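We both want to read discrete structure tokens more fluently, so let's practise on a single case. Would you write everything just below, so we can both look at the same thing?
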Amino acid sequence: MPIDRVETVFLDPGRPLIHLPDPATTLVWRTADEEVLVVGPRTHATYHHGKELPPCVRMRLRLGRTVAVLGVPAVELVDRVVPLSELWGRDRITGLGGLSATSGRARIEAALRARANSAQENAVLVHRAASALARHTEVPAVARGLGVSERRLRDLFTVNVGLSPKRFASLSRIRRVLSAFHREPLADLAVANGFYDQSHMGADFRRLMRVTPTAFRAGRLPTTTCTG
């Protein structure tokens, strides 16, 4: 199955909309206008505040499956939002009109499965590498453990994930920090997630989140107004 997680998102117009840095590629089905968007890997956070948006169904692809199901290298989608029709052609995604969230999701999932019969070996390598990087394993050690060169590992990630292994590890580490951000002291979070110290974590956090950890915790976000 090429999909890692599916969720229905209801957006509150009274709160900022925060898109976290994310190494995954995601499909977003906007149920109001039946548009399916491909959201590529995000290398930094974005913040929006403004118009009310309709609910949407978000389908997060498994790492390493982007080429197999979308037909383009993940690196071409980094920090981009592209209509799925541009990748598949309009005729491949028609017929969603009038469908419920459940049936529409099922149809999209079936289309993804139909395109996910290749690249299995690469997907397994990417998954194993991602698991090792998430445990703070250094890139050279990951490559040796998989029996591939660092260049091969880098090429696999660039094509299938859209990010280098090093950048993937950096984004994953900050996302782990955020998962416990409001429960743990910053110094403890730094140690638990493999940073040298709190200052090291703060520098990575500021680079990816575009705001300091203290400001983020206090809700002082650099929001922009949604347009369009």
